[in-house]
Amino acid sequence: MGFGGYVVRRLLLVVPTLIGVTIISFALTHLLPGNPALVKAGPLATPEVVQEIERSMGLDRPLPVQYWRYVSGLLHGDLGESASTGRPVLEDFRQRIPATLELTLASLLVAVGIGVPLGVLSAVHRDSVLDHVSRVLGVGGVAMPSFWTGLLLLYVFFYLLGVAPPPLGRLAADVTPPPRLTGLTVLDAALAGHGGALLSALHHLMLPALTLGFAVMAPLTRMVRATMLEILESDYVKAAWAAGLPRRRVVYGDALRNALIPVITVLGVIFGFLMAGNVVVEMVYAWPGLGHYAVTALVTKDPGPIQSFVLFVAVMYVFVNLAVDLLYGLADPRIRLR
Amino acid sequence: MHWRRLTANRLSFAALCALLVVVAAALLAPWVAPYDPDETDAAAALSSVSLHHPLGTDLYGRDQLSRLVHAARVDLLVALSATAVALGLGSTLGALAGYRGGWVDQLLMRAVDAVMAFPAFILAMGVTAALGNSTANVVAAIAITHVPIYTRLIRGEMLKVREMEYAEAARTVGNRPRQIVLVHLLPNCMPPLVVQATLAMGFAILTVAALSFIGLGIQPPQSEWGQMTAEGAGYVVSGEWWLVLFPGLAIMATVLAFNLIGDTLRDVLDPRMRGVR
Amino acid sequence: MSIDRRSFLKLSAGAAALGTVGFRPVRGAAQDKRTIVVAWDTDIDTLDPAQFKAIGGYVTIANCYDPPIAWKVQPIKDKPGFALSRPAEWDGAIAESWVTERDGATIVLKVRKGVKFPSGRPVTAQAIKYCFDRGLQSPGYMRLLFPSLIGVKSSDQFEVRDEDTFAMRMERPNPMAMDIIALSNNAMMDPDEVKLHATQADPWAAEWLKRNIAGIGPYRLVKNEPGVEIVLEVTNGYWRAEPYFQKVVLKFVPNEADRVLLLKRKAIDMVVGRPGLSPKNVKSLEGEQGLKIFNVPDTTCHYLAMNGKRAPFNDVKVRQAINYAIPIQAIMPSVLFGYGTQMKSPLPHLTPGYSGNLSPYKYDIEKARQLMKEAGVKTPIPVKLAVRVGYVTHEQASVWLQRELEKIGFKVEIVKETDATFRQVAIKGDHELSIESWQSWVNDPWYHLNFLMHSRSKFTNASFYENPVLDKIIDESLAETNPERRLGSARVAQKILIDDAVWGFLWYDSWTRVMKTDITGIEKRWDTFERYYAAKRT
Amino acid sequence: MTALLSVRDLSVQFVTDDGVVEALDTVSFDVRAGEILGVVGESGSGKSVTALAMLRLIRPPGHIVGGAVRFDGVDLLTVSEEQMRAVRGRSISMVFQSPRTALNPVLTVGRQIARLFALHQRASAPEAWRRALEMLVLVGIADPERRARQYAHQLSGGMCQRVMIAMALATAPRLLIADEPTTGLDVSIAAQVLELLRDLGRRTGAAIVLITHDLAVVAEVCDRVTVMHAGQLVEMADVRTLFARPLHPYTQALVRSIPRIDQDVTLEPIPGTVPSMLAPPPGCRYADRCPRVLDVCRRARPALLGAGPEHEVACYAVEQDVGVTVR
Q: Residue A258's closest chain D neighbor by CA?
């Protein structure tokens, strides 16, 4: 059937899931108590005004019709309007997605950068002090509510030591933002060669990425450790060692290469943790991403942004998992060349 | 033999003790707590750690230790019931899908995929906002996000076990399907279930804490660790460190205990891993 | 690709180091003196002056649009560098001067010579009429206020006498008229600019005005990035002298703890918004080196609304019992930390006609129990106490109230609702007990009581109080121009309302701003929105 | 005739949660140049542990607790890891039981062979690739260019085993340890692999230690045989003597359990199971299952004594009736 067929089949499988996702997100916001028309009309609006707005929002029509209006609206990029910013949700998303993406990628880098080596070393030095410390650290990381770690880091590094920047968003106030190519400030600054902006962007990314990265590190470390342990016991590692390859090359070459493949699968799960953690970490660090946007919408019962946020996260999650499966296929010859 | 293995490892032994302390505190809350948790006292408001109030007092002068102990009951209750509901619902769905197969399996799996498409917390956030954040709704929100995990787990085990000869043999002897499931298949699925449930308990407590931070947590006067930490977090800057430290530690210790025990259980109960020991 | 261990460790160490390197902290020193940076937690939802909006919208309009007439501010004796509006004192703005005819029933405005809109077109009386007409007809706040408060029902009551004279004709003289005109909602817009963007379906260009400014003011909006910041810069060619601050940056900081940290580290100049900082945090910043607190009493009333339409709150004895059960002696210190004044009457203590000695209520749990017994209500009475999410002082007060109300037979469940839900449930009359707050922009007793106590004010009479006697007094007094009679009847109204225990009295909060010591020139006007025109850095 | 490799009192223990497993109990034997030495015994008798110990591949929780492995006059158990690396894969190499899992799944077969030439003989990449293709031909794999670029999962079990052998013989080792090389293969392929091993052994002069539980394989391929039981070496002899006159009761039971085509013999399964080596009793570990058990057997471990030319046995009962000479 070959790799192409595998990809097509996986893509077809995504469609029913996406439909399910739109149904759930529609249902969720429809259950929200509070009448969005009233939010739009304002507290002192007369009942007639409220009805007028309800009709214009189509809230009086039967549910399936509203669902269909909602879905067809989606396809045309109409994600509704946000009451708190007065702008179409699509515009808010376009402004905020890069911020969330940048924080997510930076946190992933932190999680992988620290989590994978920790997992490998604790597998190689099994039951050593490092093994126990990394386990407690990993499990501890997950056990601590990220808003707690976030505030703690902020309090220590910003307030006490003054090493970290103030939680005022993505760039220092006095730094001119680089021209917006990808929206990822670090990337844009690097591409535009703005040394100052790059430094400031990284500096502002430091604590949030550490907080979020640390929270998602545990599953990664545990997965790498378990896989590495299994592989170290495998025949081909013994064979390679028996064939005279130095122990280090066997462990960090053959074994590690094979251990990294299953790690790709856990990246899908980690992406889920990251999207969830985003919401809380963005609140603590005033990071202008989607997370905080969604919470404000939740608190003000504003259906447009909530529906779109929940849907956006789900769609991203579905495609990330799809990408992970495909990446896994590519990385592992056993699947690639069925 | 499992018991010894569980206590042999220093780490999981400490975790077990921590959990026992928390459970004891929750059960014996009224007798353990030195004060009535809701007793307000304007004069003693925001007083630091003292003999009188070992963990200090909050804005209303209520004793933090008493509130922490009573909150243990709420947190464990929420975690337990959410996991129980998710376990029950998830297993039945999983068993049904695994055993029936065919379109039932396909339908359930697509539904599970749809729910799994949402990161757990985002879904819990949406559900709590939609249904309102009474304790029951928070439990429902967390349960819904965990159901798919058990469904997939049981379905996987079910498919594996169903293929095995002895299930075939049991069927030929004339046992009714439900009987087969209960007697033969479920006990076999027990190990991964127990491991998953233990880890899920920890995760449930974290979810409640995060929901409280964004304002969707459990309603006052019900005191709950997550809510106490979320509120306390605001006081760090103005110097009342004890309001956030102790509830935060309580959450961390309990979730850590659940995770460590879950890990050790996985090592103990999961034969495949035992070899590696 | 097999990498040996040493390079492997280097790679991972490098990634980890990236995360924790101690950069030279990019201090705020580079910020220039003529820029003021403030922090708050609100976005601009709409800039249409006529619409209801979030604080973000109101403050931006207040700094980018000049009204015809503005509230005058006087420096405060014991608070150097701070100024406060006094009742019935105004300054000319777009209108240079004003006179009254038909002993106050008509107000004539003289347009200031040489004031031009950004487009270069001069400000004329026609422009003023267009703005008032728009207020009267486009869906929004003024469409309600003009007719109900000052009896202006049709646009021909707005007359253009000549190029620079505009007159507003009311049916009868009305002491609230000048304050109504001074509202930031009457922002003077350039009609030609607005008409450019009007459409058949949207005659008053509401959609365009949502995101754009079409008037003249000390500042202009240069950046509006929701969730990040709003930036105002000084307008060139403004009719008054240039303000000290060339640039105003309003940073969006959602988490209050962060705002406190920012102040303590002097990374920002001031925290604003409603309430910006809870009293608890303001208290903790007292005496903080490098910071100062501007605190002045305000007219915002915070009260426990008791739904008169639902048992047992229709019984006056129960309402009185509740007033005796309110632990005000605990709430004032541990919720407001002294930043507020105890409420003794439905009228704010700064409003003319206020009488603070009529209320007998104080914390007396025995008297409260006694009254409950007299009311003969079967206890325990399950009741919901609604509070809005994000109103920190309300959430805290509700816990105190819950504790005490349970001592006199209630079983209280505190329900936290979002702004939208809270308002919708209140209007439907489904709230039993709820903590409400109200701020009268016009500091006049009858403006205040009309909205809060008159039976016709469906949306704002939170206790659904219906008292024909009081209604009559309000209707008569609304247009009463004789000061003695106007204030005399205010005392009568307060007596009725206090005896009838319509509200559970809580507090009037005070307007507090915490800022760096080198900031001065902060002014507090009746609508509580900061204007940065007079602010300076010493 | 000096031994190519001599193992003296080799003991290996595994520290597990449930106690210490004494996997090898003072095993001694020699491997002579050019010969094929069979190591036979039921599964779990310590055959594989012996092989791994000889190449010092025992990892915690296993530890080599005693004995020596002398090769070229040097005790491999005491040399540094660097020196040991110069022996592994160059002088002594190993072939594993399940071919498919013993090959790295993410490297092409060709590369896995080629890198040995680069490692042990500093060959350049193209040179190493060329010699790898040569080895594939040597082990009888058709169309080597295509096969070399394929992965383990794309080859049959037999072909994988041939690749393993190609890797083992790449640097012309003097000793090849084959741990149950044919167990995973079906009969016809197994025969070819054994034939290949014997043929390459004769051609390169390499000695082969063939570990198996299949006595038929031993009879057909090996020159000499050692019999292992529960981590102890119970008998050693040239193959004809062993099959003609097995002395140790365990060996006799093993020989009797071979199905013979030429005689109708009733198969007798060996009573009991291989005893657990977890804190084993002192003395001979076959005692519980041995029909000729004596009191002394339970108290002390019988020494390995000569019982004839090319024939040694460790059994008190045999000592009494045959009068063995102390070597």
A: D106
Greatest extent of chain B over all pairs of C-alpha atoms, in Å: 76
Q: Quick check: D260 pLDDT over 70?
A: no
Q: Does A309 touch chain C (CB under 8 A)?
A: no
In a domain, D178, yes or no: yes
Which architecture, in CATH terms, is B2-32+56-273?
A: Orthogonal Bundle (1.10)
Domain spans, chain B: 2-32+56-273
Give the one of B215, B220, B237 whose C-beta lies nearest to C260's C-beta.
B237
* Cα dihedral sign, A69-A71-A74-A79: positive
Same domain? D75 vs D158? no
Q: Note whether D304 and D192 are same-domain residues.
A: yes
pLDDT tens sequence across B123-168: 888 888 777 777 888 888 889 888 988 888 888 877 776 666 555 6
In a domain, D97, yes or no: no
Q: Do residues D154 and D231 share a domain?
A: no
**Tally of domains in chain D:** 2
Q: Cα(C164)–Cα(C109) distance, rounded to whole angstroms?
A: 8
**Chain A residues with beta carbon closer than 8 angstroms to that of C418:** 34, 299-301
The answer to whether the CB atoms of C333 and B45 lie below 8 A apart is yes
- Classified as helix, coil or strand, B277 is coil
Please give the Cα distance from A195 to C317 (Å, whole number). Answer: 72
In sequence order, what are the beta bridge partners of C270?
C38, C515
Of A29, A143, A222, the CB nearest to B202: A143
Question: What whole-number distance in Å separates Cα of residue D265 and Cα of residue D257?
Answer: 9
Q: How far apart are CA D55 and CA D58, in angstroms?
A: 8
Beta-carbon separation of B114 and A31 below 8 A: no
Measured distance CA(C133)–CA(C137) in Å, rounded:
6
**Sign of the C-alpha dihedral computed for residues C241, C247, C252 and C258 taken in this order:** negative
Judge if D17 and D162 occupy the same domain.
no
Residues of the domain holding D126: 103-172
Q: Please give the torsion angle defined by the CA atoms of residues A66, A67, A73 and A74, in that order, rounded to the nearest 10 degrees.
A: 160
Residues 6+ away with beta carbon under 8 Å from B20: none
Find chains touching chain C: ≥3 CB pairs under 8 Å: A, B
Question: Residue B243 burial by CB count (10 A; 0-12/13-18/19+): exposed, middle or buried?
Answer: buried
- Chain B neighbours (≥3 Cβ pairs under 8 A) are A, C, D
Contact D94, A239 (CB under 8 A): yes
Contact B123 A23 (CB under 8 A): no
Q: Which two tokens stand for residue C245?
A: 């601050």
Interface test with A, best of C3, C6, C253, C255 (most A CBs within 10 A): C255
Please, are residues C42 and C54 in contact by the beta-carbon 8 Å criterion?
A: yes
Instruction: For helices A185-192 and A89-124, give the axis angle rounded to 10 degrees.
Output: 90
Q: Could you read off the pLDDT of C323-363 as tens digits, one per residue? A: 999 999 989 988 898 899 999 999 999 888 899 899 999 99
Beta carbons within 8 Å of C478's beta carbon, 6+ residues apart: C149, C174, C176, C446, C450
Per DSSP, the three-state class of C13 is: helix
List the single best residue of C423, C428, C439, C450 to mutate versus A (max A Cβ within 10 A): C423
Cβ-Cβ contacts under 8 Å, D16 against chain B: 277
**Segment C259-289, tens digit of pLDDT:** 888 888 888 999 998 778 888 889 889 989 9
D267 and D163 in a single domain? The answer is: no
Q: Which residues of B touch A19 (CB under 8 A)?
A: 114
CA C387 to chain centre: 18
Helix axes B225-235, C256-264, angle to 10 degrees: 20
Task: Please say whether the beta carbons of A279 and A312 come within 8 A.
Answer: no
Residues C66-84: what's their mean pLDDT? 89
Residue in chain B nearest A123 by alpha carbon: B276
